[in-house]
Amino acid sequence: MAPQPGYHSVTTTHDRTGAGVLVVAEQLRRAVPGGIGAAGRGLLRGLTELDRARRPRVALYVSRARVHPDPLAELGYDLVTSPLPSRVLTRAWDHALVRAPAGFGVVHTLSLVVPPTRRVPVVVTVHDLAWRRFPEAYPSRGRRWHEAALVRALRRGSHFVVPAEDVGRELVAAGAPEGAVSVVPLGSDHLPDADDEGAAALLDRLGVGGQFLLSVGTLEPRKNLERLFQAYAESRTSLPEPWPLVVVGPTGWGDDTRGREGVVLAGAVPGAVLAALYRRARLLAYVPLGEGFGLPPVEAMRAGTPVVASPVPSTGGAAVEVDPVDVGDIAHALVQVATDQSLRDRLVSDGRARADRLTWKASADHIVGVWRSLP
């Protein structure tokens, strides 16, 4: 897929990837890597699927490992490891006390965490600017960090990769040169094979038998769970049975989500178990206030699960879209998608077609094109 009009790379005959690419992968060291971590792992997997002639030499730059052997070694890339622990290293990058190692032609960051470099072009991945759009959904400390990180990224970055055109427009408005922004949609094929036994055991422990609705995401205000729970409470009596709503994801911050009738909090689960939960679920309900892309909908689509979602970029018209601040609209969609078989069949077909178009190999190929276009 070529870069989107208005946000593109400048073609050049000089290929810096011959000296190798250093990927700043510190997000993968986080206790909760989140969607950024999933996207980073997806990209790294996609790079391995490219033809050898297309794939440049890539190494990962990270803080020292807490355990040995280093769990990131399983990704199959050379590791350039700092002796500093994660928190100290990222603060040192913030204050320009530590630079990225030399010897590479391009530095690529998986997030807004951008180390300074020695006159090497830096490609920065910007997943969203949601803290600006929804400041009330972020703690004040988080807003301050994101804003400072964006300023550093705009100063240190040579080129910027975003998952959707809306994010590109926001980034240009924030100060990025329009010609230095490339739109690269994320993939959908990053989850491992489904662990049906693990999912069955989890549901049994949670007391969930039979069918259920599913929601996936970190428990925090931006995910709009309070309105989803209200909508679920409204719709529950209109379902054929009072199917529970299983919520998968780590605890973030904000409102208490416990004590809701029919709502079952599963916490974070392994990727293989999540893949099996998607396959078993009656539908996925994903109604954040906003997202730069939104991975759970396309994960569900790949599994053949109908989706109710906010108008996030990932869905591509293959979900029933709802107004995330309209509880009644969400409730109506939950009932409709849970019970209307003809609608469900169409959503499954459209969703699978959408997911098939979103592969990490295609994303990786596009990223390599960005690297090779750098002047």
How many E-type strands? 13
CATH superfamily of the largest domain: Glycogen Phosphorylase B
What letter string, H or E per element, gives the SSE order?
Answer: EHEEHEEHHEHEHEHEEHEHEEHHH
Secondary-structure-based class equals alpha/beta
What is the overall silhouette?
A: globular
Notes on the structure:
The chain has helices at residues 34-48, 86-94, 130-133, 140-156, 165-174, 196-206, 225-235, 271-280, 295-302, 327-339, 341-357, 360-373, and strands at residues 21-24, 58-62, 78-81, 106-109, 122-125, 159-162, 181-183, 213-216, 245-248, 263-267, 283-286, 307-309, 320-321. The chain is an alpha/beta fold. It has two domains: 16-187 and 359-373, Rossmann fold (3-Layer(aba) Sandwich), CATH 3.40.50; 196-357, Rossmann fold (3-Layer(aba) Sandwich), CATH 3.40.50.2000. Strands 3-2-1-4-5-6-7 form a seven-stranded parallel sheet, with helices on both faces. The longest helix is centred in the middle third of the chain and has 17 residues, at 140-156. The protein starts with 20 loop residues before the first strand and ends with a helix. Residues 1-13 have low confidence and may be disordered.
Descriptive tags:
375 residues; alpha/beta; Rossmann fold; 2 domains; six-stranded parallel β-sheet; 12 helices; disordered N terminus
